[in-house]
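User: Please predict the structure of the protein below. I'd like the answer in structure-token form so I can feed it into my own downstream comparison script.

Assistant: Understood. Taking the following sequence of 772 residues as input:
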Amino acid sequence: MRAIREYFTGGNTLVRIGVVILFIGVAFLLRYVAERTHVPIELRLAGVALGGVVLLALGWRLRTRRPGYALALQGGAIGILYLTVFASLRLFHVLPPGPAFVVLVLLAAFSAALAVLQNSMGFALLGIGCGFLAPVLASTGQGNHVVLFSYYAVLNLAILGISWFKAWRPLNVVGFLFTFVIGTAWGVLRYSDELFASTEPFLVAFFLLYVAISVLFSLRQRPVLRGYVDGTLVFGTPVVAFGLQAAMVHDWPFATAYSALAVSALYLVLAALLHRGQRESQRLLVEAFMALGIAFLTLAVPLALDGRWSAATWVLEGAALVWVGCRQGRRLARASGTLLQIASGVIFLFDLDSIAAEVPVLNSTFIGGLMIASASVFSAHSLNRARADLRVGESAYVPVLFCWAVLWWLGTGIAEIVRHVPQPYREASTLVLFAATAVASSEIHQRLRLEVARVPVAGLLPVLVIFALLAAGHLSHPLAQGGWAAWPIAFAMFNFLCRRHEHDAALWPARFVHMAAALLLVGLVTWEFAWQVDEGVKGSGSWPAIAWALVPAVALYMLPRLAQRITWPFATHRETYVALVGSVLALFLALWSVVSNATLPGDPFPLPYVPVLNPLDLAQAFVLLVLARHGLHLYRARYSVMDGLQPGRMLWALAALAFVWLNAILLRTLHHWGGIPFDMEVLLRSTLVQTALTIFWTVLALATMLFATRSGVRVVWIAGASLMAVVIAKLFLVDLSRVGTVERIVSFVGVGLLMLVVGYFSPLPPARKHAA
């Protein structure tokens, strides 16, 4: 638009406008005399041509005295001569094609020579513009397209010739716009498949001409690849030409793919040849041609398989616009490229239903989505590199484009899984996809320094938790339906990311991440082990419940050893694993101990039941020993995260767990040997159980008091005495009224005798210690 404005406002504006109006009037005159007069057409055309020659001669004569006026006259004269020759050839058929094209070639060469000799871009614009308008103004709608495109080819050759000597950008763009706009209009209105053989050579010729013009331009002046000029020639030529080609061959199998492959080969060869020249003025052009070659090579794959060229082309064009905008500081190009990529993705999304993806991965759905994701990452990287030059608000383009890329990558990946992976294995495949996405994002962050790429890395742990919860909702064990491969791969990738981003405090809190991941891993292993045991015993006995405690107990037992022998992650995060993870496992084991003692009858299938020496009681003993060892380790290690830890409370908790376990041993023994159903309500109503509890609690209380007296621990003695008080209260409040006569006698006599015996050895509590 600037060139057009400068043409009409620079120099003698009145003369330039008058020349254009005169040209249009001559075109109308030719049409009028053809319809209304009887003068031979040869004379009419000769008269118009003579008028053009007179204007040309007058302009040449005045070139030194009135250069602006003279150039306007010459440009108008050249346009009139173009119009006359074209009308003679196409409208009135008085000039054979051979001589007509000889005249057109000579006229084009002559006008180009005049423009170069007089160094007048305005003259060249006027002459070429009139030449392109001539067939439009003189057209009756019945002409031959071969004649039209041959005529335009001559004009474009003239532009190519001028480009050899002059770097006139507006002239190149005017020729490009006239050629492809008029060609596109003809294609929409007139083209049919029968005309392909006579149309395809012209499309190829026009494409090659404007590629050549771009190269010639770089020889004369460094291309800046910005604005409507360079962007149109370098990127617009392949996009428009390929769009027209796709429209012409869309019904032919693989034709569009072969076309993209040919365009890619052309640009890659040109980039290689120009690169060998080592010309600084062509450096950006080499980069642009290389980018276009790779883009069309990538585009050829989904097109060959069944893809949609439009959305894929637009996303590549959008990436190219962002790149150009970043290289040249063009805000509009950056915004347009970003919006174009988003829009092309939406268009591609709406077209997915019509795409049949028969080949896994190598189909247009996946590769098209991968192209969108790759282009968005490339654009985000380009914007991130140019962040110092971005305007206010443009920094938001980077996370938007990267998130768009991640969404397309995940969306197309999940679509491939749904289409080609059997239903039972889809969830496991999706888990691997998410883990791979996190690793790929980490790689992008490391190599491209793209900060937003850390988000999928930080999101992997929540994803693992979500998939574990999903598996718990409908799977019998975590390694089912492909989990045997998915979970090890996912944890291996997570471990790799934790090691890589070890010191990235802004990404995630290392203590929380290691703690959550360790607990998740122990939970999954415990679940799998319990299921395997349950399958092995066919659900019989207490074995499945025991399995739920063995893995956490072994893990709790091994944590201090691992922290001593393995540097990362155990020694590096010693407090996290030993203190925090260990305490959570200890809490789980304590809850397991209470629940299993309250609910499990201790069936040792296929073994006979033996008190204490049955599998459940041995597991309980192992758990209590591990808990005691863990508490002792925490007390000795003095971890900072356990500053408020009180050893006394840990001892009381262990004592309570041991008391519950010992009572459970008694109840399970009465269940197996006494035939009492293992139901708390039934057990508590049993007189045998009540009597046994009374005697048992008495033994425990008195044994505790005796131990306390011997060791001099007053608080332990008080605990034993408190339990003895509970026994006495139970004797008078429960046993006296609810148990039978025999059981009542046994209870009172047994308790009394035990108290007498112990009282002889431990008559009083240990003395209270006073400070000196």
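That's the full token string. The longest helix spans residues 510-537.
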